[in-house]
Every structure is written in structure tokens, then in C-alpha cells.
Write a structure and sequence with these properties.
By secondary structure, the chain is of the alpha/beta class. The chain contains eight helices and seven strands; from the N terminus they run H-H-H-E-H-E-H-E-E-H-E-H-E-E-H. Helix 1 packs antiparallel against helix 2 and helix 6 runs parallel beside helix 7. It binds S-adenosylmethionine. S-adenosylmethionine binds next to helix 4.
């Protein structure tokens, strides 16, 4: 009798796990479909992902990325494109930069980032809703960060954004790009290596962290300056 009850409980638990998995897969398909529509569909998709807590795991930051940001910010102006809920800048020593602007397409993420930065007293940080492919920088920047966001763009847009970012950096400025999988995002890494000069490269298992600087002729050819 006792064994039967245990077996039943196990069967129910397995069923619930399977149901949870199916629901997660369905949600992910819906998000992917909406993202493929672009525009408002993509915005809804990202907002829904943040609203349902899908990205809560991003609270844990890579110590390598945090250390790199602190080294490369150089006391200057930092921009993060696709900043999500602002977990990265929260982990960074605020003495390492003069100002920080985080840009993200998700209003839900930006609202959460601004609220938490306010609570943490990060007065040098500001967050904006915007599309990274349309981002325009109006001052020379010490450091631009694209942590797990560049590959969200189509290859042509990635290339355009990379060129624009590299052209807007100060002469000793740097661009940090991370991808969680070198295999899945191989073409993004190829674009980074083609348009920038790799200054630092860190591997955390499948994850790749690149610090890029501009080719010497970049500022002239892009026409952004
Ligand atoms: C995988 S999440 C990474 C978030 C954050 N960088 C982090 O590491 O915590 C990708 C982020 O890029 C943002 N994103 C995707 N496409 C975007 C676009 N076209 N313009 C602005 N943000 C975008 C998403 O809203 C999301 O916050």
C-alpha cells in the first residue's frame, strides 16, 4: 500500500515536471515567433520574458566581465547596449566610471534597472528604452558593452552597429562583446574579429568575452566623427 502511494506521488511529480517543460517550450516558441516579427512583436517578446522572470538567472555576473569593465572604463563614460535589468553595472565598482547609460528595447527591463539603481544609490547611472541598432552616441565613449545582446541583431545590423560603436570610442576606448556559446554565435564572433582588433579574449567554457579596439582607420572610414 505504502509503495503504491509512493509510486503514485512519483508519477504525479514526473507529470508535473513534464507539463512544466512543455509549457516552457511553448512559451519560448511564442517568444521566438514574436521576436521574428520584429518591431512591436520583438518588444512584446522581451517584455514578456522579463515580466515572467525568465532572465532572473542573470543576477549572477561573471567576475571576469566585471573585472574587465572596471579596468577598461578608465574613469570615463560607459554605455551598455542591451543592458537588460542592469545587473552588470550593479556589480561594478562605481568609482571606475564617470557616467553610465544603459539602453534596452524592453521597457519592463529598463524600469526594473532604474528602480534598482535608484535603491542602490547609483546616481551616475541612467537607463533608456531604445533599439540598439538606432543608438546614437553624442560623445566620445571610453567603454561600450554588449553583453549577450549583439547576436540579437541580424548579421547586417550587427556589422553596422559594430562599425558605429568602434568609431565612437575614444582613441584608447574599448568595446566588450560577450556570447554565451562560441558555437551558436560563431558568426557574431567572426563579425567582431573582422571589424575590431581583439585586445583581450577570455573563454569561460563555451562562453567567449572579447575586448575590441578600433582599427586605426575606422574613425575615418565610418564617417561618424
Ligand atoms: C540575453 S539578454 C541580456 C541582458 C543583459 N545584457 C545581461 O547580460 O543581463 C538580451 C538583452 O538584449 C535586449 N535586446 C535585444 N534586442 C534588442 C534591440 N534591438 N535593441 C535593444 N535591446 C535589445 C533584450 O531586451 C535583452 O535585455
Amino acid at each position: 500500500m505504502r509503495l503504491k502511494v509512493i509510486n503514485n506521488v512519483n508519477a504525479w511529480a514526473r507529470l508535473l515536471v513534464a507539463k512544466g517543460n512543455v509549457l516552457t517550450v511553448m512559451r519560448r516558441l511564442r517568444w521566438r515567433g514574436a521576436r521574428a516579427l520584429g518591431g512591436a512583436g520583438a518588444q512584446w517578446s522581451w517584455n514578456d520574458q522579463f515580466r515572467t522572470g525568465y532572465w532572473d538567472s542573470l543576477r549572477t555576473r561573471s567576475p571576469n566581465v566585471v573585472a574587465l569593465v572596471e579596468q577598461l572604463a578608465g574613469g570615463g563614460d560607459v554605455v551598455e547596449l542591451g543592458c537588460g535589468e542592469g545587473f552588470l553595472i550593479e556589480a561594478v565598482d562605481s568609482d571606475s566610471y564617470r557616467s553610465y547609460v544603459g539602453v534596452d528595447v524592453s521597457a519592463v527591463a529598463v524600469e526594473s534597472a532604474a528602480r534598482r539603481a535608484g535603491q542602490a544609490g547609483l546616481v551616475k547611472c541612467r537607463f533608456e528604452v531604445g533599439r540598439i541598432e538606432q543608438w546614437r552616441c553624442d560623445a566620445d565613449t571610453s567603454l561600450i558593452i554588449m553583453e549577450e545582446s549583439l547576436y540579437c541583431l541580424k548579421p547586417r545590423r550587427q556589422r553596422r552597429l559594430l562599425r558605429r560603436c568602434l568609431a565612437r570610442l575614444k582613441p584608447d576606448g574599448r568595446l566588450i562583446v560577450t556570447v554565451h556559446s562560441a558555437t551558436r554565435h560563431r558568426s557574431t564572433l567572426v563579425n567582431c574579429r573582422r571589424y575590431g582588433v581583439v585586445d583581450r579574449e577570455i573563454h569561460e567554457s563555451e562562453r567567449v568575452i572579447l575586448a575590441l579596439r578600433a582599427h586605426d582607420e575606422e574613425a575615418v572610414t565610418c564617417g561618424c566623427r
